[in-house]
């Protein structure tokens, strides 16, 4: 009766040696050589959304030997790259550089993009590589922001977008927490082939608050955002100062409709309340806005 094959060895009892594994190693090596020799072209990202005035970058990775790469925008040849490093561009708006030392990766850049740049971006490598097409979406600058407006004890903050497509989704946060949609009023109007939107957040500022407007569309990986910080406090000194003006004035009454203390980036807002004076400072897009109303 024959003995069965021993575990980890051959039927004759001998262990497998490197000679026995040779066929498997040869097959793996041959497959690896064949795979690495197949021409391959990859362009990333395939969908890119950028704001008007910013730069758009696309990376093309080539596997195998290549000589000439071309980039087309809206069907027009705008840039040619040679493997040796020669770059020919139709204008200063387009540039390219290698992103790997072996020249297997090329970064193509469209500078200062505009709405007219939206559309297909095609990379082609001569030979058996073919071409790959990416899509560029250019949106208007995010925010034409307006400062706080005071209505009673309520504050309104407006967030505006211009020349976006499709219609953007606008949401708000206060101190990092999502704001209830019932406090938000958003309207959008078509303007040619894009949309202009205005979103208004209404709330009562009782304590210091950071408000953030977030704008997004399906092709954006992360929302565009803009924040404003509101500082709320009591300044009783101003209250007693203006009470003194009232009692010691010959006319017994002083009314200042608007007093503005301004420089290029700052003004002050003071609103008299029964318990004193609320001192509000709004910082929107790194600009401090001050209005003094007494």
UniProtKB/TrEMBL annotation:
<dbReference type="InterPro" id="IPR007110">
    <property type="entry name" value="Ig-like_dom"/>
</dbReference>
<feature type="transmembrane region" description="Helical">
    <location>
        <begin position="228"/>
        <end position="248"/>
    </location>
</feature>
<dbReference type="InterPro" id="IPR013783">
    <property type="entry name" value="Ig-like_fold"/>
</dbReference>
<protein>
    <submittedName>
        <fullName>Immunoglobulin superfamily, member 5a</fullName>
    </submittedName>
</protein>
<keyword id="KW-1133">Transmembrane helix</keyword>
<dbReference type="InterPro" id="IPR036179">
    <property type="entry name" value="Ig-like_dom_sf"/>
</dbReference>
<dbReference type="InterPro" id="IPR053896">
    <property type="entry name" value="BTN3A2-like_Ig-C"/>
</dbReference>
<dbReference type="GO" id="GO:0016020">
    <property type="term" value="C:membrane"/>
</dbReference>
<keyword id="KW-0393">Immunoglobulin domain</keyword>
<dbReference type="Pfam" id="PF22705">
    <property type="entry name" value="C2-set_3"/>
</dbReference>
<keyword id="KW-0472">Membrane</keyword>
<keyword id="KW-0812">Transmembrane</keyword>
<feature type="transmembrane region" description="Helical">
    <location>
        <begin position="21"/>
        <end position="41"/>
    </location>
</feature>
<feature type="domain" description="Ig-like">
    <location>
        <begin position="120"/>
        <end position="229"/>
    </location>
</feature>
<dbReference type="InterPro" id="IPR003599">
    <property type="entry name" value="Ig_sub"/>
</dbReference>
């Amino acid at each position: 009766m024959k003995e069965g094959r021993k575990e980890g060895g051959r039927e004759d009892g001998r262990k497998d040696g490197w000679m026995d594994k040779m066929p498997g190693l040869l097959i793996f090596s041959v497959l690896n050589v064949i795979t690495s020799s197949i021409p391959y072209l990859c362009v990333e990202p395939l969908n890119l959304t950028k704001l008007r005035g910013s730069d758009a970058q696309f990376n093309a990775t080539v596997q195998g030997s290549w000589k000439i790469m071309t980039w087309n925008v809206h069907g027009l040849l705008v840039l040619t790259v040679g493997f040796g490093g020669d770059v020919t561009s139709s204008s200063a708006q387009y540039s390219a550089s290698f992103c790997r030392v072996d020249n297997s990766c090329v970064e193509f850049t469209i500078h200062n993009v505009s709405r007219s740049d939206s559309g297909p971006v095609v990379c082609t490598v001569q030979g058996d590589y073919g071409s790959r097409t990416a899509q560029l979406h250019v949106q208007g600058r995010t925010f034409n922001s307006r400062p706080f407006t005071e209505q009673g004890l309520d504050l309104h903050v407006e967030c505006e977008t211009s020349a976006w497509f499709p219609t953007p989704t606008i949401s708000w946060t206060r101190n990092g927490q999502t704001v209830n949609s019932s406090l938000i009023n958003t309207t959008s109007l078509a303007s040619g082939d894009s949309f202009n939107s205005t979103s208004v957040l209404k709330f009562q500022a009782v304590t210091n608050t950071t408000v953030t407007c977030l704008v997004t569309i399906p092709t954006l990986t992360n929302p565009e955002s803009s924040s404003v910080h509101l500082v709320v406090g009591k300044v009783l000194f101003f209250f007693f100062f203006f009470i003194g003006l009232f009692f010691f004035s010959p006319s017994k009454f002083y009314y200042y409709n608007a007093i503005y203390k301004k420089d290029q980036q700052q003004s002050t807002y003071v609103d008299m309340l029964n318990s004193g004076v609320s001192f509000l400072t709004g910082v929107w897009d790194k600009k401090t806005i001050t209005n003094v109303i007494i």
